[in-house]
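Sample 1 of the test manifest.
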Amino acid sequence: MSKTYYDPADLRKFGKITEWNEELGTKFFDYYGKVFEEGALTAREKSLIALAVAHTEQCPYCIDAYTKDGLQRGVTKEEMMEAIHVGAAIKSGATLVHGVQMMNKVNKLDG
Amino acid sequence: MATKSLKKRESDLANSNRQLEILSNGIFQNGELPTFKDKIAETNQFPLKAKKLEILQINVGYMCNQVCDHCHVDAGPDRKEIMTRKTMQMCLEVIKNTGAHTLDLTGGAPEMNPNFRWFVEEAAKAGIKDFIVRSNLTIIRANKKYYDLPEFFKKHNVHVVSSMPHWTRGKTDKQRGDGVFDKSIKALQELNTVGYGMPESDLRLDLVYNPSGAFLPGDQASMEKDFKKALMEDFEIQFHNLFAITNLPISRFLDYLIASENYEDYMYQLVEAYNPSAVAHVMCTNTLSVSWDGYLYDCDFNQMLELPVNSKVKHISEYNETLLEGRNIVISQHCYGCTAGAGSSCQGTVA
């Protein structure tokens, strides 16, 4: 079997991080669980945000987890793809908006 | 999607022993995952025992007008197992004397049994509190002879429980076949027209949601909210409750899990979502399932796996409710499907 940095089966072991630091691990999972509860935003909306961020963070574990989570909540593939485009738009916008800095610099140095 | 049952295709998985073998081997044999028996023993819940009977579920045959991807019955137009009038008569004797408060007719498409209407008329006379027929909806639009079913159900005060995998056409047709969504919508509108599913109506119309793939159902209450909103906005359809049901890894769903290389992940999901408090309320503890040929099972899933009740009483002809009470429930790894998350039963979540 070829060795890779990412193993899908590792996602199931995520909870084990608590074994090496129970206090911080437990605090993290309590916080994590609380964040995704129904609140001013529905759990469904939060799931879609998580899916978009999973992509901008390029976390394969999170992508697997929140694709499945979305399916469980009845989220359609069209909704998932739109959410990802929101993430992609912010990513590309964040790159492009730095173009203004480049323009400022050009104008200052060579204007 | 397939147009024939596993049985007709002579698939290996049409054999219940082969299914049970798969469910006992691999990750459960090598100890990677605990068997269901070991898992419930951890909380002193083994053996699972039948309590007082509440729900009598009768499967009147495996014939169906649809061939859904996930079907645990392996139902389809090519299935010939149909309950005879003689077996129905034996069931009626039981229905008249049972202590159960719910009678639940299922299939296949129960309406395709040639004696279905006679059976419903006779069974309704017994005056059981809740008389359910599990209708796949499309049958109501499948042929002119079924068009009056909503009126027929109404006449006999039948509680209609219907499958609806999603509020969108794409996801519904993917699981249940092309055109199923449009026919189901039309059937639901017709049920609404005669009064079924309306907020103040006693004519109960509930929907069953089960996932279209290798994932577990989401929160039942949230799904119900989403279904109600979408079906009302898009089609002005109303219904009472949504039952979220987990797909059990047997029959065609097991075939799908293996073919799509999702079997192990799915079993992990079920075991990880195991909820000991759901065990106390699993449906086999208050339900008895009768097959088309009159044999008795702890649930419809055990019926399909050909795992009969662990009792001296095996057949409807020798039915004895007192003797059946307290029997040990027959279990295997498929039972994890009923204890995952909020639990799952033919009446939805249990925990």
